[in-house]
Predict the structure.
Amino acid sequence: MLKKDIEEYVQDDRLRKSMDSAQTREKNGGRSEKRSAFVTGEIDRLLGKSQWKNLACIGAIHTQNGYKGKASSEWRYYISSRKLTAEELLKHARMEWSVESMHWLLDVHFGEDFCRIEDEGVHQVLNVVRKIALNCVKAHKQKSGSMLPLSKIMFSCLMDCRKLLPMLLLGQN
């Protein structure tokens, strides 16, 4: 119910114009992305707010992407127990994406979601080791200018251990 209330609030042009707003634009590899954030602490009219203790503000991010002449658009809706500015919402949403991106990489390259180790300490140590390995491979890829995907670089090191040490050394500062 609250999501629908937030959607209706944000999609009302008159109400959206009264919200705090901020924008970012990025261009990378022929792809352009524009993010527009809208935030308000005026939540009295929302019917579903009573279900969320300490609800302080609502927000939305409208993402518009362009790539090779094709455009796409997506809305994401947010709630917060802290009053945020539109710029803060953009920053926090971006940080959340970087965490999700790291989790995705760990799952894809190391099958982390399928790890059945029950000892929490061992599980945490393996998680840290995987992150270190992933960051080394990413640093190697960036510094060497390699166009290979991370998985191919990792597989190459697995098949030929002599490639591992130079890759680790290149990842150092």
